[in-house]
Write a structure and sequence with these properties.
By secondary structure, the protein is α+β, with helices and mostly antiparallel strands. The chain has one domain: Alpha-Beta Plaits. Helix content is 39%, strand content 18%. The protein has helices spanning 3-19, 49-56, 87-97, 126-134, 150-170, and strands at 37-41, 62-69, 76-84, 101-102, 105-106, 108-111. It has a four-stranded antiparallel beta sheet. Strand 2 (62-69) and strand 3 form a beta hairpin. The longest helix has 21 residues, at 150-170. The chain is globular and about 50 Å long. The termini are far apart.
């Protein structure tokens, strides 16, 4: 599918929801509630990670960025992945940045349901590697209370167990 068609479809979905005052739980964004990653496509090739951070940090704290580059030349391929600290920021970014023009190029911004980090390389620092292993963001603060409940701890424990099993299989 043409990337510009995807941009238009996402904009139409968001406009329909705004027009009909759809609640957050019924929104199309809710299917991505477990991921704080977004995809940026159609970026100008001369943009750096710093440029992307400046623009996209308007809607939340960015904790990880992966500007995909050509391995041989090191030049940007024109797309990137960003992880926000809070999943609610992804909804704001998708709704507000999708279809904007940066340096004459229309960019596509969309949710990422399951981000797969790039193959491990030597030049990745420990903090980034840890973020890739345990996941990034997606802990939306509960509106009812500030204390965590047992029900909230169960999915985290399940994820940790699942990651341990994956590591054992790799070995």
């Amino acid at each position: 599918m043409n990337p510009l068609t995807k941009v238009k479809q996402i904009k139409q979905l968001s406009e329909l929801e705004a027009e009909h005052s759809v609640v957050a739980e019924a929104s199309w964004h809710s299917q991505y509630k477990d991921s704080s990653w977004i995809f940026l496509g159609g970026l100008p090739y001369e943009l750096t990670e710093g440029d992307i951070l400046c623009v996209f940090s308007q809607y939340g704290e960015i904790v990880n960025i992966n500007l995909v580059r050509n391995r041989k030349t090191g030049k940007s391929k024109g797309f990137s992945f960003i992880c926000y600290e809070d999943q609610r920021s992804t909804v704001l970014a998708v709704d507000n940045f999708n279809g904007i023009k940066i340096k004459g190029r229309t960019i596509r911004v969309d949710h990422v349901s399951s981000y797969r980090p790039p193959r491990s390389s030597e030049d990745v620092d420990d903090m980034t590697r840890e973020l890739w292993e345990k996941g990034c963001g997606a802990q939306t603060p509960s509106s009812s209370s500030s204390e965590g409940s047992e029900n909230e701890a169960l999915p985290k424990q399940h994820k940790q167990d699942k990651q341990k099993r994956k590591k054992k299989k790799r070995k």
